[in-house]
Amino acid sequence: MSLLVVLDQLGARRLSGADFPPRDPLSPVMREQVEQLASPAWKGRKPGTRENEEAARYLGQQLEASGVEPLPSVGSYFMPIPGLRGGGRVGDNVVGWIPGTDPEAREALLVGAHFDHLGETEDGLVLGADDNAAAIAVLLAAAPLVRAKQLERPVFFTFFNTEEAPYFGLPTQGSVRFATAPPRELGAVSAIRLAVVLDLVGGVVWRASADTLFACGAEKTSGLGAMVDSVQEQGLAVRRMGIHLVENLPGYRPQPVSDYDVFRDKEVPFLFLSSGRTPRYHKPSDLPDTLHYDRMARSARWIAALLAAVDGAEAPLRFDPAGEDLPADADTMRWAMTAAATPWRSIPGTGPLSAVRLLGDRARVEALSAPGHAYTPEDVLALERASFRLQCLLYSFPVCFTF
Asked: What are the angstrom distances between the C-alpha of 272 and each of 193, 196, 255, 269?
């Protein structure tokens, strides 16, 4: 096996956008939007800077062009985020909506993604194409598609600011501020039927996952997993994962990784969409030409179709903080481990130790598919470790395989 892995990796390389020439009609506009947001002129859109404010104004213009209206109660697309302890404004969330066809609707749908990034770091200027300009472009592409579906419930398009450190987890985080002081048109955050949050949806480094979008958190809401599975978009594989497979890191408490966290804390049904971290995460190499624009276009169409399905569902969505779907977790991890442990299909950077661990992970998750299998805490830990090692390889952080 070690020899096969060595031979396999001799010709292995990380994939990039050049490996997936855009052919989808939505892709060129999405690329233009990513190139603008991740342009050197905007220096990474760091909160508190002129460039962050320029990016916010650009997003307001793009929402208007996409047919997303400003909120009447706000009078614009911009909702200020005040600083801590009475400090000055740290930036703006950019928020618009598509009103529903039913003026008596008591629930709303929300889609969101953060638009800020790091800017200058010790590694150099980080412009944030995948993190998170790609997600912004996906939601902007989805907006006209959502409008065309004429949903009964209103849909809020929320571009959160101040998601990156040092704001994450604080009252000044954009999504936390939105949930703490929602607009009058929404009322209470509890009125959200479903919040869909995107982060890192453009990158690709592994051929086997090139057309995959991971959907996390559906297990916390009754019936949502079935809706996710029922919505199909040609050329896109949406694979469900429990949010615990993303958050549970060895030696740490569960670590939330994006803006979905505040909605979960408030027991709002949520779905977190991502294609996963790549070695370009928070690096100067996270540039527009590294993204898979056709997959992003398919993701936009899939999101619009999902919102229509959720809007049309008669049964209410019920949030369950203890909800889990371990068979779905096992299905996704079995697919991933089978591909990753197969010579000539492995993830770039896989070495002999990684391959041995992947073979063990594959054997464990395959055992979970036995008819009538009763899941144990040890099974849950095995799934989490398998997910952790997969993420480490995709992120090019092989020390994870010592766990």
From this structure: 14, 6, 14, 10
